[in-house]
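Researcher: Go.
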Amino acid sequence: MRMNSPKGKELLALIRKGNYAHPGEEEAIDLVFEGYIRDPGKRILDAGCGRGGTASYIQEKGLGTVCGIDIDPSSIDFATKAYPMIRFFCYDICSSSSLRQHTGKFDVICMLTSLYAIQDQQKALSELRMLVDPGSEILVFDYSSPGAKHVQISGRPEHAPWFPVPVTDAPDVFGKSGWDLIKILDISEHFIKWYTWLVDRIFQNKDRIILCSNNEWFDFMHGFYSGLLKTLEMGKTGGAIFHAAATRSQPE
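Model: Structure:
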């Protein structure tokens, strides 16, 4: 069992009342794009778009014309059918530079809890840099780490290691990838609030989860997110928004 499996994503969408793979749902998206001027002509890439809910929300808010990419074919198939007004492509972020042949370049790239799943984050950011011109921006909303890149949510083998973005190393990682890191906004308290709500929602919707799956899935979901909440409360990982602009130099 994994939460990033088709069944896991289906159950998570049920609990979150939308096709979101990140904490905070609409509130988080609004926080990421706070202060941005609405411009339907702005071209936005949602890198790691999952089932497409975030891309749809961004476009509906008039922030820009959105395109989404994700490595999971089943997620892209779902998103394409659910949101036909948006273009979705099945792409690994770590080889996403070739997306230009289908879409051209973008004005803004956003990543909402997708970079943590990639071990070679410099490679991912370098590939995304190839999709924009100098001065274009990237907004990374993700799990953060005060130092260590490896975080184990629990001792259970199905809880794969995560790679929260290291705050101390972020300027170097972004810089070598062709991005000038403008600011880091710590939103760890928001993550704790959002996951407290999510764990409560899972418990309150136990019968619905079991009806759509089985008891094992409920136990897995509740255990997984309870473990993640504990990790956040202990300060082993946190949440942050990393705002950077593309430099004139190419990635190293």
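Model: The two ends are 38 Å apart (CA to CA).
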